[in-house]
Amino acid sequence: MHESSNVVSLKNRLAQVSIPFNALQDLPVDGLLRRIGNARVVMIGEASHGTSEFYAARALITRRLIERLHFDFVAIEGDWPDAAKVDHYVRDKKHKASEWRSFARFPEWMWRNDEVRVFVDWLRHWNLAQPGSYPRVGFHGLDLYSLYLSMEEVLSYLRTRDPALSKQTLARYQCLMPYRDDPATYARTALKPGFQGCENDVLAVLASLHENQRAFARDDGERLFDALQNANLVASAEEYYRTMFFSNANAWNLRDTHMFSTLENLLAHYGENSRGIVWAHNSHVGDSQATDMSHRGEYNIGHLARARYGDGLFSIGFGTHQGTVMAANDWGERGEVMIVNPSLPGSYEKTFHDSGLQRALVPLRRGDDELRHLLHHRRLQRAIGVIYRPATERQSHYYHASLPAQFDEYIWFDESRAVTPLAVKSLARLPDTYPFGL
């Protein structure tokens, strides 16, 4: 069967107007920075949570955004207290860091890998090399899965600021303590008639912090901000778990709304002209309105940010045809290097592969009008999270999307490889202050 003229035209146009590069270090960042321009928020995606090229390219772009365009912080699809330990390290904060190991829970390879380690080390070096009055670039988490760690952080903060309020907060948080080992139990309990949830208790803690905000801020505004973000996370996580079994769309929307709210809080905290970089999966940063998600009543941080910032948001997606990925067979299982199936016919990934492109940048917002038109029709697009199920590839990992409506730029790697989790031997040589310690 002959290919349609539209498919042939698309492959040819892709080959003509895409910007190829030979190796990662040759990624043409200068042109990308010009296309980003004055955007206040740059969201950089990934088509999986375990692909080395996505992490390394994202780190390279982020370095240039910090060096040349003076972005103020990086915010990742990770939990606030975990990222706070990294932030403590890269900004060389003077107060004592938390005791736990950063990103030590499933899926630990998502952030505890060599690709992230290299960036974290660079960011610390960059910050320490700046003049004393120059603001240091922060590293923060947007997600809401650290319910109990965040509770501990709020309590730890209040013990040193207001012991009486700390005791009152502990009493309020006791409502959630029976579910500590398995927060999903709270969700199942919420389905029972007569369930009395913990919503009022956790909201009261948040309100009490806001009521004392002016007095607490006189001591240390940074630590107060951290405590407020943890209290916000507890409130969002309580609602997330309490309602997670009512509908999948509700749980997804609550999570991305929390991530967007955290981003907004960070921009406000860093100041009126601050600029932020977001690292998250394509399914979070690409505008959900351009995907099947909109039909299910779901929206994401990319859609919320587009509505809020318009052209002040610049989003970058990634794709690959085949290779390897670090993933698990099911939630909570050990991560392993898995072979990524070649992309399916009818998908964007297969179209890019058939164009002959090995590695390329594809400008979409400020790119070729003919290419945008040819790409606009919705096609299959692959998304691999921390779970990969090759046996059910179509059902588990593909959805329909319109690439130019989803992203402002697309970065293509025809073949890719898995991230490298941090080895125990390399961790053993690191200082005690290192956030990814043993």
Q: Could you name the ranges where pLDDT drops below 50 across 5 or more consecutive residues? A: none
Question: What is the C-alpha radius of gyration, as a whole number of Å?
Answer: 22 Å
Summed over residues and divided by their number, the pLDDT gives a mean of 93
Q: In whole angstroms, how far apart are the ends?
A: 57 Å
Keywords summarizing the entry:
438 residues; alpha/beta; nine-stranded mixed sheet; two-stranded antiparallel ribbon; 11 strands; 47% helix; 15% strand; globular
Structure notes:
With 438 residues, the protein is of the alpha/beta class. Helix content is 47%, strand content 15%. The protein is built from 19 helices and 11 strands. The termini are far apart. The mean pLDDT is 93.
In short:
This protein is an alpha/beta fold and 438 residues long.
Q: Secondary-structure map with pairings?
A:
Elements: H1 5-17, E1 19-20, H2 29-36, E2 41-44, H3 52-69, E3 73-79, H4 80-90, H5 114-129, E4 138-143, H6 147-161, H7 163-173, H8 183-190, H9 199-211, H10 213-217, H11 221-243, H12 248-270, E5 276-279, H13 282-285, H14 301-309, E6 313-327, E7 336-340, H15 348-354, E8 359-363, H16 369-376, E9 379-382, H17 393-397, E10 398-401, H18 403-406, E11 409-416, H19 424-428
Parallel strand pairs: 2-5, 2-6, 3-4, 3-5, 6-11
Antiparallel strand pairs: 1-8, 6-7, 8-11, 9-10
